[in-house]
Amino acid sequence: METQLEVLQGKYSKLVKSSGS
Fold first, then answer.
1. Dihedral angle over CA of 16, 11, 13, 3, nearest 10
2. Residue 11 and residue 9: Cα distance in Å, rounded?
3. How far, in Å, CA of 6 to CA of 20, rounded?
4. Can you tell which superkingdom this protein's organism belongs to (predicted)?
């Protein structure tokens, strides 16, 4: 289940980076 967590983190990281926060 760690893979799903990594995928979620990656998507979140991209969202955060897109926000430029």
1. 160
2. 5
3. 21
4. Eukaryota
Helix residue ranges, H only, 1-21: 2-19
For the segment 1-21, what is each residue's pLDDT rounded down to a tens digit? Answer: 679 999 999 999 999 998 876
Q: Residue 4 burial (CB < 10 Å; 0-12/13-18/19+)?
A: exposed
Stated pTM of the model? 0.38
User: What long-range pairs does 11-16 form, CB within 8 A, spacing at least 24?
Assistant: none
